[in-house]
Specification:
Length: 450
């Protein structure tokens, strides 16, 4: 990491890190981007290709980095046959196009499935964290030991800042959502448990099997076979039986979680999950005759992942808060994504997500190939792009599928750094499609290298 990036990431525990005006860090961010490009230009094959294609030899301003950002689809650019046909050597070679470190010494002999492949990579220090992939291929995001260490530090600091909860290890942790079993999620859970959980209380995990990439891959492959008519009758029957069994487990989990929360209502709770699951559990708690008056007055809540297209009543947030007795200043929400390694916590007063100094925010046009304006002032709405300077195991620049409104000025909460309005939407949901201009050429290059 370069000096400028180290200075910026060194602010991770600084309580005033979101209070730095953007004009005070922009020059240092440009220097950090220039350092990172110089470090990684010859180490990441896809980055070198993007730079040569754009004719960029150095970074002099924010606009110079835009052609070097990767579309979020880049991490899904491996041929699907690599997974379906279990070509683990080819999938490993594909990872090498987006990693700054040579992928060496991984024993692939006898690899049974994608979960086994991920475990073998992890044993050699290559950590693969994946997106859910519930509607298609999972994004395969390679990370390093440094990235895992950063996730441990950042998650505690982000939650403490956004919720006002100090890491005093005095809470019981209640999970109300299935958990994706990937390295990043595991280290985040471990760090939060060490910082906020009373060791005398066992964490309650939502009583459903963890979600693995292998299980998701099998589901996606089977759905495609059913759609194209190539699935055999016994395969369809087994798939439907498994789906029905999982649905029954998910339904039962709601009541089990509600009973666990009720049984521990005297304790200081840290409840976490997605809004859909939290609402379902809260509804069951209410149906069993309990509400805010029955719970500890200093409970807190960690919500991640947005609505995920769930249809809930307009007052779903208020309903959940009032059920579990969550004070207004103990509600934590975070804007991030698997492609980044840092969180952007939502403030209590302004209701906006705050961008840390080591994450460079950019607002691009719809095609994702240019800044909407070179002036980083005022409020700008468009396609979100970020460069996370904390990332070590892959390139930190990403073009997202999100439409956001970014304000470079002070927030109503008083903090002076840039922040994002709570109006985040996906282009795919808004327009039914999402085309990033560079995605096709990136996809073609990576496939060619793999």
């Amino acid at each position: 990491m370069g000096k400028a990036a180290d200075t910026l990431t060194g602010l991770v525990k600084d309580k005033a890190r979101f209070d730095i005006p953007y004009e005070d860090v922009r020059a240092q961010q440009v220097v950090a981007l220039a350092e990172r490009f110089a470090e990684r230009h010859d180490k990441i094959k896809l980055l070198r290709h993007r730079a040569e294609e754009a004719g960029i030899a150095e970074i002099r301003n924010i606009a110079d980095i835009v052609p070097l950002l990767f579309p979020h689809t880049a991490y899904k650019s491996y041929p699907e046959s690599f997974l379906i046909d279990e070509k683990w050597d080819r999938l490993t070679k594909w990872l090498g196009t987006v990693s700054p470190y040579p992928i060496e010494g991984v024993d692939l002999e006898g690899t049974t499935d994608v979960d086994d492949w991920i475990a073998r990579l992890e044993a050699r220090g290559y950590f693969i964290s994946c997106s859910s992939g519930t509607t298609g291929k999972s994004a395969m995001l390679i990370a390093s030991d440094k990235d895992m260490d950063w996730s441990r530090r950042d998650t505690v600091q982000v939650f403490a800042w956004g919720s006002g909860v100090e890491p005093h290890a005095d809470r019981m942790m209640i999970g109300c959502a299935p958990v994706a079993s990937v390295p990043k999620n595991r280290v985040i859970a471990e760090a939060q448990r060490a910082a906020f959980a009373n060791p005398a209380y066992a964490r309650f995990n939502y009583p459903v099997p963890p979600i693995t990439v292998g299980a998701l891959t099998k589901m996606v492959v089977m759905r495609k076979k059913m759609a194209d008519g190539s699935a055999m009758p016994d395969e369809v029957a087994a798939f439907e039986a498994t789906s029905a069994e999982r649905a029954a487990v998910l339904d039962a989990a709601i009541g089990i979680a509600a009973d666990e929360i009720i049984a521990n209502r005297d304790k200081k709770l840290m409840v976490s999950g997605l809004w859909s699951g939290l609402y379902a559990v809260a509804r069951d708690v209410r149906d069993k005759g309990y509400s805010a008056k029955d719970f500890h007055p200093d409970n807190c809540i960690y919500v991640g992942g947005g609505l995920k297209r769930a249809l809930l009543p307009d007052d779903y947030q208020q309903f959940v808060h009032e059920t579990f007795n969550i004070p207004h200043n103990r509600d934590f929400q975070n804007y991030s994504m698997q492609e980044l390694n840092s969180g952007m916590p939502k403030c209590q007063t302004g209701g906006r997500y705050h961008v840390p100094p080591w994450v460079v925010p950019m607002i691009l046009n719809k095609a994702g190939d240019a800044l909407l304006t070179p002036e980083c002032t005022g409020e700008i709405e468009g396609r979100a792009a970020f460069f996370d300077l904390s990332l070590d195991g892959r390139w930190g620049g990403i073009i997202t599928g999100d439409k956001i409104s970014l304000d470079y000025g002070p927030c109503a909460c008083g903090h002076k750094g840039p922040s994002i309005a709570n109006t985040i939407a996906r282009f795919a949901d808004l327009e039914g499609d999402d085309k990033i201009g560079c995605a096709g050429t990136v996809d073609a290059y990576v496939r060619g290298m793999a």
